[in-house]
Specification:
It is a multi-pass membrane protein. It comes from Rhynchospora pubera. Belongs to the complex I subunit 1 family. InterPro entries: NADH_UbQ_OxRdtase_su1/FPO, NADH_UbQ_OxRdtase_su1_CS. The protein is mainly α. The protein has 6 helices and no strands. Helix 1 packs antiparallel against helix 3. The longest helix is centred in the last third of the chain and has 30 residues. The protein starts with 11 loop residues before the first helix and ends with a helix.
Amino acid sequence: MVFGGGNLWRQPIGFLVFLISSLAECERLPFDLPEAEEELVAGYQTEYSGIKYALFYLASYLNLLVSSLFVTVLYLGGWNFSIPYIPIPELFRINQMAGIFGMTIDIFITLAKAYLFLFISITTRWTLPRMRIDQLLNLGWKFLLPISLGNLLLTTSSQLVSL
């Protein structure tokens, strides 16, 4: 097991690009262009009330939870405990039910890491100002795409050199 989880230490540039892209895909506040277009109370959701409005927000937060789970599994090691050399069943002195208890702890660890990124996404909604469409396009095409392609080139060349 790698200290600190999975690919976060191997691919920090990919992690930042993926995190910014997942925020943009979930239409969180720096990138919430569909809601900001009309500058109304809820943008395109103004016509909905009651359960339809609640289902829109539920779908939005489920999308955010799924993207947080993707970040957790791809970059934080998923269900692996981030602190090495601590066997959890021996810590609680449980040896008979170690399989079920271990699986429960693994699910809890995954959800805790996902909720950490859910909290980070909600916090960025509170702190960052809204971007205009031209700023979002400049960020995507002139900043994120060249950085991600450079990261791909760097990763590929380092893998080829290690062969």
